[in-house]
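Summary of Year 1 activities. Much of the first year was spent building the evaluation harness for sequence design. The harness presents a backbone, in tokenized form, and records the residue chosen at every position. We chose the following record to illustrate the format because it has been used consistently in internal testing since the harness was completed.
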């Protein structure tokens, strides 16, 4: 099945302009109405590869998160924001956990989402379980966060960046943050093209219902962090 793609012009992170651009985009995606129904719990999955503030184009910008969260809340949805920073920040097994409140404060998410009933979590906080991969290249089973069992749908919020290993990081690559840190590290050791194929595998195990890509300011160079 083909994906529906909506491109919207937005040249700055002004809250009103971002909100309008996101709203226009969602209007062009027919499945949005079914996804955003009152009472449904929605996981918002930003890119927090390395917790940085909005002055650097490392993480999904807070205004993009806010715009999507507002639209979900106005539709009557319950909100959960979750991600898991890169494995070298959290330890091979994910046991060395950064404090979730500090993580989401550093990125500016807590401040910008004031007034919205948002729950915050690290993917590792719920543990991981096996998700089978249909027709895998390298990964027959993906170990993904159990938070996926606690929600009715997922909105993927990637950041457009170059990537030193995969050349580009976007909607497919961002779902790699749902993967258990140990498996994520092992797959990073594959090198390309095997790493890119493994990312496709883990994406096939669980596909978010919707992706909203933050490309207002993209990163080029030594991404996903140092560009």
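For this record, the design step produced the sequence shown next.
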């Amino acid at each position: 099945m083909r994906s529906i793609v909506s491109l919207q012009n937005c040249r700055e992170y002004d809250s009103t302009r971002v909100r309008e651009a996101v709203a226009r985009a969602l209007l062009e995606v027919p499945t949005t109405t079914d996804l955003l129904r009152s009472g449904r719990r929605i996981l918002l999955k930003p890119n927090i590869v390395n917790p940085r503030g909005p002055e650097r184009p490392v993480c999904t910008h807070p205004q993009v998160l806010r715009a999507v969260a507002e639209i979900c809340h106005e539709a009557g949805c319950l909100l959960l924001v979750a991600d898991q920073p890169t494995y070298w920040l959290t330890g091979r097994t994910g046991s060395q956990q950064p404090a979730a409140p500090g993580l989401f404060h550093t990125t500016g998410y807590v401040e910008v989402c004031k007034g919205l009933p948002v729950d915050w979590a690290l993917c590792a906080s719920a543990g991981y379980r096996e998700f089978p991969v249909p027709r895998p290249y390298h990964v027959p089973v993906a170990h993904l966060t159990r938070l996926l069992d606690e929600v009715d749908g997922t909105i993927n919020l990637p950041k457009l960046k170059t990537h030193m290993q995969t050349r580009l990081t976007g909607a497919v690559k961002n779902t790699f943050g749902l993967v258990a840190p140990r498996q994520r590290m092992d797959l990073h050791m594959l090198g390309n093209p095997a790493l890119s194929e493994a990312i496709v595998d883990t994406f096939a195990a669980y596909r978010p219902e919707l992706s909203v890509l933050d490309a207002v300011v993209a990163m080029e160079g030594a991404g996903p962090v140092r560009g």
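The CA atoms of residues 159 and 214 lie 5 Å apart. Quantitative recovery figures across the full test set are reported in Table 2.
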